[in-house]
Write a structure and sequence with these properties.
alpha/beta; 7-stranded mixed β-sheet; 16 helices; globular
């Protein structure tokens, strides 16, 4: 009898149609995503078509698996793009955010579900009605931040609301950092993701949030001097600075009446104060091109932002401009970056200050082959229940395995892969352009993420938010 049941199962599996997943973009974030889906491919009858401008890069991600095909794919080649989308059952776009829309429009045309880790753009939101009309799930913001932050937050918010609690405070922080065992520079930081995004962080308008019912704004030139301290058991102390728009998700999360809503980026203590030196000098500016950058040295670059003086050295002028002494740790941090070296900046013609700073920092902050990265996420939930104010702190730390399967690749790629499979299997049904904020989405994905070491530890604690008896100013 057992053999008969096994034979029927084998026959059903054999006759089941292979389902084709088109993955567009084979960059660093795709490694864990592809590994997960390939591991599931036999059981779930999946075939992966991995497309990238670089065929070699796409091939490197297949691990020569029988259920994967690597192709050179240029999404600006309209006929090729549409041909591949037509052959797919679902499309995963790991392209830069501004490149999703053409793919999404084709997915509407050919009635294909779509998954991305990127923020929902206005153009993407504009496809909501068409996606709903065609019964298509367009899942966005299903990576790390945005993604895991949404899911882990909504889980706790919904649990509080189910008990009859009323949310009064929500703070959320996330950061991509270097793991403690690989933390060996004075900045306690290395690039674990797109360096350009780090250099430009906080630009494009004032950071805005709501605190104890009052709207607050932090202009860019003050952003890195307004930080909040966070303690994570086993990993020490961190700091958080405000994201540009903390109010973006107020209605999405159902927190229109919340008194405090703040989202921020996590760094090790002291990073923000040091980074502020670059901001004050103007080295993070990306709005104009500098002259003769192809012949410029590190020292020339730094000197470009300092006043002229007939005798003072670049070192002296830098200390005077920043108000630091030779025995200040801030000075040591600048020395560590080799900023006063006369070596040339390689191949940087007509570059902006931000682009040159990124190049210089890459020399010092690139992860080495033996280095590991780390993701830290920290939520604070304040709420009222039966006339009493309470607080829950939720913390998650994830350490990368190596330079291919990094913590960043894991936390960005795995939720994308899991959501894709849930959609394919009909477990996520609600059509339209959406975020992972509903129980049918976040519950199974968060549970499965725990098996990969992405675990949130929630702690009930005394409420430490707004105290009207001690309010000195607002």
């Amino acid at each position: 009898m057992g053999f008969f049941v096994y034979f029927i199962h084998l026959l059903a599996t054999t006759n089941k149609r292979m389902r084709n997943i088109l993955i567009i973009g084979a960059g660093r974030s795709a490694s864990s995503l592809i590994q997960y889906l390939l591991h599931k491919s036999a059981e779930e009858q999946l075939h992966l078509t991995i497309g990238d401008l670089s065929l070699e890069l796409a091939q490197s991600k297949t691990n020569k698996h029988a259920n994967a095909t690597a192709i050179a794919l240029d999404i600006t080649n309209v006929s090729q793009r549409r041909e591949e989308i037509q052959k797919a059952d679902i499309v995963i776009s790991m392209l830069p955010a501004h490149m999703h829309i053409e793919v999404a429009q084709d997915c509407v045309t050919y009635k294909k579900h779509m998954v991305t880790a990127s923020y929902v753009s206005e153009a993407m939101q504009g496809l909501d009605a068409a996606a709903q009309a065609n019964g298509l799930v367009f899942m966005n913001e299903i990576g790390l931040d945005p993604g895991i932050d949404h899911m882990s937050a909504m889980k706790v918010i919904h649990e509080i609301e189910a008990k009859g609690g009323k949310m009064i405070l929500f703070e959320s922080f996330c950061g991509g950092l270097v793991a403690p065992e690989s933390d060996n520079n004075l900045w306690n930081y290395k690039f674990t993701w797109a360096p350009r995004n780090v250099v430009l962080a906080g630009q494009g308008g004032a950071a805005k949030f709501i605190q104890e019912g009052k709207y607050k704004y932090i202009p860019y030139h003050k952003l890195f001097r307004r930080t909040e301290f966070l303690e994570v058991e086993g990993y020490g102390r961190f700091e958080g600075y405000a994201n540009r728009d903390s109010l973006k998700y107020r209605s999405v999360y159902g927190l229109d009446d919340v008194l405090t809503l703040y989202r921020g980026t996590i760094r090790r203590v002291g990073y923000s104060k040091a980074w502020n030196m670059f901001v004050q000098l103007g080295m993070t500016d990306d709005s104009y091109v500098m002259e003769h950058t192809e012949t410029m040295s590190y020292r020339d670059y730094l000197n470009s932002f300092l006043p002229y003086h007939p005798t003072d050295s670049v070192e002296i002028k830098t200390r005077l401009a920043l108000g630091i002494e030779q025995d200040d740790i801030m000075w040591d941090k600048l020395l560590e970056l080799d900023l006063f070296n006369a070596k040339k900046i390689v191949r940087m013609k007509e570059a902006t200050p931000a682009q040159i700073l990124e190049r210089i920092l890459n020399d010092s902050w690139t992860l080495q082959p033996e280095d590991k990265d780390m993701i830290v996420m920290y939520h604070k939930f304040g709420y009222e229940l039966n006339g009493e104010r309470k607080q829950i702190d939720s913390k998650m730390v994830c350490i990368g395995d190596d330079q291919t399967y990094t913590a960043m690749a894991k936390t960005v790629g795995l939720p994308v892969a899991m959501a894709t499979l849930q959609i394919l299997n009909g477990n996520i049904k609600t059509p339209g352009v959406q975020l992972p904020i509903r129980k049918e989405v976040y519950e199974p994905i968060l549970k499965e993420l725990e098996t990969f070491g992405v675990v949130f530890k929630e702690t009930e604690m005394p409420y430490v938010g707004y105290n009207p008896d001690k309010l000195l100013g607002n």
